[in-house]
Amino acid sequence: xxxxxxxxxxxxxxxxxxxxxxxxxxxxxxxxxxxxxxxxxxxxxxxxxxxxxxxxxxxxxxxxxxxxxxxxxxxxxxxxxxxxxxxxxxxxxxxxxxxxxxxxxxxxxxxxxxxxxxxxxxxxxxxxx
Length: 129
Prior knowledge:
- The protein is an alpha/beta fold.
- Helix content is 24%, strand content 40%.
- It has helices at 13-23, 63-72, 85-94, and strands spanning 5-10, 27-34, 37-43, 52-57, 78-81, 99-105, 109-115, 121-127.
- A 4-stranded mixed β-sheet has the order 1-4-3-2, with helices on one face. Strands 5-8-7-6 form a 4-stranded mixed β-sheet, covered by helices on one side.
């Protein structure tokens, strides 16, 4: 068994696609119309056949209060691995990304948390060697 799909609830799929590709560097994998919404996934360019991230519309009534509560408490929705948190932090800040947590040494990992502009906080992490 393996994980092949994970999702993140987004307020606007088109806006999310731009952010996740243009800013984060993911690559669009699937874009299939599904009525008013789309089956829209992105992947890492480092592993185009790997785990897909579904940019899931957050239209369900439970989505907004759930997402709002996580953001209010400073809890990231998910975490992406990077090789150098400080370098990613600086690159993304130059692109206008708002961070709620600057790079922080957490013992075995260095993390930072940013706003994905689509209603979520996302964490990036680097394992320390």
